[in-house]
Amino acid sequence: MVAAAQGSIDIVLMGRPGTPAEGTVSWVRGEVLGRYDDLLDYYLSMMEYNKLETADLRKDFGPKPDGVPHAVIDTRPNEGKD
Known about the structure:
Largest sheet: 4 strands, antiparallel
Order of helices and strands: EEEEH
Helix content: 25-40%
Number of strands: 4
Number of helices: 1
Shape: extended
Distance between the termini: 22 Å
Structural class: alpha+beta
Radius of gyration: 17 Å
Strand content: 15-25%
Oligomer: single chain
């Protein structure tokens, strides 16, 4: 399995069944940033990473102001972005 997102240079690779790396996950951004035993280990690590990033943002910029939504979802059609 290979996972990537438009606008990101990160790639996630999962070892193919029947190979020595079967089921393991590697997070790559030009070089291997992390290796994980399985997809759950990777997912939980990314959740923890996001918590740390959020804490850093709060430290640098303070808490979210009242009245500002937690997330803004763009509901516009995805025209011409393919």
